[in-house]
Specification:
Elements: E1 4-6, E2 12-14, H1 37-43
Antiparallel strand pairs: 1-2
Domain Cytochrome f large: 2-51
GO cellular component, one term: chloroplast thylakoid membrane
Keywords: Membrane, Photosynthesis, Plastid, Thylakoid, Transmembrane, Transmembrane helix
Length: 59
């Protein structure tokens, strides 16, 4: 099943989904170049961004 949402122009389009991930202090995800090819395939085109300029985030 492929879910759709109504876009600003009234047409149906891809469903946008977002998540907020709160990590413990000093916790960092692995740098992307340290992730195995198998795990990269599972991750697909997910993206991550930090909410504060001084905080590091790795994937």
């Amino acid at each position: 099943m492929q879910l759709k949402q109504v876009l600003a122009n009234g047409k149906k389009g891809a469903l946008n989904v977002g998540v907020v991930l709160i990590l413990p202090e000093r916790f960092e995800l692995a740098p992307f170049d340290h992730i195995s090819p198998n795990m990269k395939e599972k991750i697909g085109n997910l993206s991550f961004q930090t909410t504060a300029p001084l905080r590091k985030i790795f994937l």
